[in-house]
Design goal:
This protein is of the alpha/beta class and 327 residues long. It folds into 2 domains: 3-81 and 226-324, 3-Layer(aba) Sandwich (D-Maltodextrin-Binding Protein, domain 2); 83-221, D-Maltodextrin-Binding Protein, domain 2 (3-Layer(aba) Sandwich). Helix content is 34%, strand content 17%. The strands form 2 sheets. A 6-stranded mixed sheet has the order 8-7-6-9-5-10, with helices on one face. It has a 5-stranded mixed sheet with strand order 2-1-3-11-4, sandwiched between helices. Strand 6, helix 4 and strand 7 form a beta-alpha-beta unit. The longest helix is centred in the last third of the chain and has 20 residues, at 243-262. The chain is globular.
């Protein structure tokens, strides 16, 4: 008899074949729930709702560095993007380059989320703008946030204000109370509450007008294609059924192979990351496993330590299941 596991995942081309049943892990019956990532991570960190779930890499290493050992990580990376190319600014703010973010009021859905971690890291290492140089305003409230579930406190020297419940990043950007935002989320879920379409508003513009060109520049210089989401399995399941881990890995790899074959039908999804184009769609963009992603993962861990989110440098061997480290 197959072992039955509940799994929470955001809808993503990399996992569609697992959601719709085209790929079935050997010996495992998956009960998938498509859940928005913002909500999913809060539910998993706070309540442990799922046996297997997608997980914020930043929140995972923060939780583990603080002694939370409820999960083991799988080196399956469902989403990645050049997150710093998504920074939005007010056109009347006078912000014309990343250096101009110094001293500015900057929104962020959640300070500890991996997309914000990457953006701050790139701003610091590529453009000389450190987290302490900006004044942050965070939208998510402690009761319903990843930080609330992991005991987040603003790092020393960094100013993080809480956006009042009657406001949100979108409304504060439009009113001029915020001059920029590192990331902007409007998808309906239990956590995020902005609704304004900033991307098409006449008063708002991207910090990087040519996001694709900046993504290519950054990738060619650093070799990094930033990861923000991985997968976790409850530790109790991994200990009782250790075979589950590699069987899940193989299933995610099969789903990824299907996505790679079909991605010509989803050109827009990949082009917007800034790396893919019609010319390079024949080459795999995403590979799971530690070997293919060690540099990216170790850089994220380094950023987390530098930014004061983790009290020490997290090692990949602490995060991922032992029998997946050679994958």
């Amino acid at each position: 008899m197959d072992i039955r596991l509940s799994v929470g995942m955001a809808s993503n081309p990399r996992t569609w074949a697992l959601h719709d049943g085209r790929v079935k892990p050997d010996g495992i019956e998956l009960i998938p729930s498509p859940v928005h990532a913002s909500e999913l991570f809060w539910r998993q960190l706070k309540f442990g709702d799922f046996d297997v779930s997608e997980m914020s890499f930043s929140s995972l290493i923060m939780a583990m560095a603080r002694g939370d050992d409820r999960w083991v990580g799988l080196p399956v990376f469902t989403t990645r993007r050049f997150f710093h190319t998504g920074v939005l600014i007010r056109k009347d703010s006078g912000i014309q380059s990343p250096a101009d973010l110094k001293g500015r009021r900057v929104g962020v859905p959640e300070y500890q989320q991996t997309a914000a971690l990457w953006t701050r890291g790139v701003l610091q290492h590529e453009f000389g703008v450190e987290p302490k140089d900006m004044e942050f305003w965070m939208e998510r409230v402690p009761e319903q946030s990843h930080g609330g579930a992991t005991g987040f406190k603003p790092p020393e020297g960094v100013t993080v204000h809480q956006i009042p419940l009657e406001k949100n990043i979108g409304s504060m950007m439009l009113s001029g109370e915020l001059e920029a935002t590192l990331l902007y989320i409007v998808d309906p879920n239990l956590i995020d509450r902005s609704t304004a379409d900033l991307w098409r508003h006449p008063d708002i513009a991207p910090l990087f007008p040519d996001a694709r060109a900046e993504g290519i520049r950054f990738h060619q210089k650093t070799g990094l294609y930033p990861i923000n989401h991985g997968m976790v399995v409850k530790k109790e399941i991994a200990e009782e059924h250790p075979w589950v881990l590699l069987n899940l890995m193989k299933a995610f790899n099969r789903a990824n192979d299907i996505c790679n074959r079909e991605r010509a039908d989803h050109v827009d999804y990949y082009v917007e990351t800034g790396l893919a184009s019609a010319d390079n769609l024949k080459q795999p963009l995403v590979q799971h496993g530690i070997r293919a992603n060690r540099l990216v993962l170790e850089t994220a861990a380094q950023y987390s330590f530098e930014q004061g989110l983790t009290p020490r440098l997290a090692k990949l061997e602490e995060v991922f299941a032992k029998n997946t480290m050679d994958q």
